[in-house]
Design brief:
By secondary structure, this protein is of the alpha+beta class. It is built from 4 helices and 5 strands; from the N terminus they run βααβββαβα.
Length: 142
């Protein structure tokens, strides 16, 4: 296995992984091919993946605003779950964001996604009871 950074040309492979892993996908807004291409070109986002013999086993989107890093859209192919690949992707994300000088990394996880919450908790991520996530969206599909 090896870590690779995905490029816009890998879009279809990434979407197929998200679909296999059951991640919600907004094909006509922030997860579109155009949006991912723009996000990667910004230099503020990377998609880190684990590959084995050309197969995409898992991937994670990492972003930052120059002050705080974020781990987003962690996905592992269901055939390879419960083998520590998610934890490996988290560690590689932390290494990558740390190399950018970031000392705080955040994660948003749905409460009902027990596997994701557990994986991040085991990696040392703690809930912040004093923080309430709010968002304003330009459309319901954003």
């Amino acid at each position: 296995m090896r870590f690779v950074h995905l490029a816009p040309a890998d879009y279809d492979r990434l979407v197929e992984l998200w679909q296999r892993a059951g991640l919600p996908f907004r094909a006509h807004s922030r997860d579109s091919r155009e949006a991912l291409t723009r996000q990667l070109k910004s230099g503020l986002q990377a998609v880190i993946a684990l590959e084995h013999e050309g197969d995409l086993l898992g991937a994670v989107v990492v972003t930052h605003d120059g002050r705080k890093g974020w781990i987003n859209r962690l996905a592992v192919d269901p055939a390879h779950q419960r083998q520590g690949l998610g934890s490996q992707l988290i560690r590689e994300s932390e290494r990558f964001l740390g190399s950018q000088g970031l000392q705080v990394i955040g994660v948003l996880a749905k409460k009902e996604n027990a596997a994701s919450v557990s994986t991040f908790a085991e990696a040392g991520y703690l809930p912040q009871p004093d923080v309430l996530y709010l968002s304003k969206r330009s459309s319901p599909d954003s």
